[in-house]
Amino acid sequence: MRVTVVGSGYVGLTTGVALAYLGHEVSCIDKNEAVVEALRKGKPPLHEPGLDSLFSEVRHRMRFASELTAETAGADVVLVCVGTPPQRNGDADLRYVEEAARALAETLPEAADTVIVNKSTVPVGSARRVEAIVREGLARRGVRPQVSVASNPEFLREGSALYDTFYPDRIVVGSEDPWAVERLRRLYLPILEQSFTPPQGLPRPDGQGLPVFITTTPTSAELCKYAANTFLAMKISFANEIAGIAERVGADITEVMRAVGLDRRIGPRYLGAGAGWGGSCFGKDVRALLALAEQYGYEMPLAQGTLRVNERQRRVVVDKLQAALKVLRGSTVGLWGLTFKPNTDDLRDAPALDVARRLVEMGARVRAYDPVGMSRAQREHPDLALEYAPSPVAAADDADAVVLMTEWDEFLHVDWQAVAKAMRGRVVIDGRNALDRSALERLGFQYWGIGR
Ligand SMILES: NC(=O)c1ccc[n+]([C@@H]2O[C@H](COP(=O)([O-])OP(=O)(O)OC[C@H]3O[C@@H](n4cnc5c(N)ncnc54)[C@H](O)[C@@H]3O)[C@@H](O)[C@H]2O)c1
After folding, report:
1. Which domain does 186 fall in, by range?
2. Ligand 1 atom with the shortest distance to the CA of 82
3. Which pLDDT does position 37 carry in this prediction?
4. Ligand 1 within 6 A of 282 CB?
5. Ligand 1 within 6 A of 281 CB?
6. Is 90 exceeded by the pLDDT of residue 208?
7. Which residues have a catalytic role annotated?
8. What is the DSSP string of 7-23?
9. Residue 257 falls within a domain, yes or no?
10. Which are the contacts of 7, defined by CB distance < 8 A and separation ≥ 6?
11. Which of 91, 243, 48, 223 is nearest to 153 (CA)?
């Protein structure tokens, strides 16, 4: 099939590369010339495990441009994967989605037979909105191609985006047009039937069942994405809320949540207590759901609580440092990890940046290390008065405390003897409950976890 992907970020590029691997003819459009330039040079402008090598395998079959043409707009399927950042009131900003819709309306040729797909996370009514923009534009031009707008929310996780694209739990398509649904079913057929040969380095997981193809109304498809993300964020916030009480009564949250999560009705994932969730999606999507509810005069206390617990959780790390060091002004803190989670270079809403900012405000000297996020941090947060170190041990040099904020593998296998030698103090704050407490205590460190 001829597929055009509008927006070549974490979602668009991953999806485009995966679809090209599955045999589709893919054009990636991004209005950011630097992104297009990087793609043309064969270098994906973002970090995602496995992406560089799969991209180099399929890129000769892909095309890249900064603008739509009649040919790319008139593909069999156009996937809109542009950003939908939060507005001040929490509502999703649809300006990029609308921009893409207008560009499609201006370029779709008369002979097109195209399904336009909202893959971006968008509030209810957005498929309708895109459809209205496209129809108005086409009417103005006096052309009448066959077009349908469907909603196809994306559930991939950064850090395992390709894996999630090839091996999803479900594919949701919201549409009123049976022919559009059928076309999207054919687009995803190799994934639905798991009939493709797995790419190198992305083996099919054992016992992988077939993904469920769910067809819904556009509104249900739009709402399910917000509901899913709010639930996942709520699970983590729930674990963090219990962590606070675990600390007070002397329980260990990792033991508690292991026992809780083994209940099949609950499940073990997304129950890790720590410095809280971040990233480009959870906070934005929970807020967008709350903004939607407000338009209906409807209260959502669970969603509100999910946010509140997470905001409080970011302070817990600084509170612990304060409790351990007493005075933060003049102290040196080694900060391990900047990205909002491991295996990505994404810093959007990263808890580590919040913690870093607060520590600097309180007069601490912060020396940070992250395996991939440092150049992006320097570029995107030039105001942040951090020092950047070339290794975890260098970040710990002369530090009173080390704080683990992102559980990159590199931190889990660090040479603790070398860290002990480098540090001035002995305090380790494990903001992800990822380190081996007894091993650290044996080496003389003062270990502080979250909820233990
Ligand atoms: N990142 C995730 O983990 C994830 C997961 C599921 C869903 N989503 C949703 O997918 C959407 C995209 O997220 P992302 O993280 O990939 O965003 P991103 O910021 O990484 O990428 C968006 C890209 O779209 C481009 N763009 C913006 N307007 C454009 C236009 N009019 N024409 C062409 N290109 C345009 C930007 O230049 C940018 O490169 C968002 O709605 C997000 O909520 C993201």
Report:
1. 2-216
2. 24
3. 98
4. no
5. yes
6. no
7. 281
8. --SHHHHHHHHHHHHTT
9. no
10. 29, 30, 80, 81, 82, 83, 96, 100, 120
11. 223
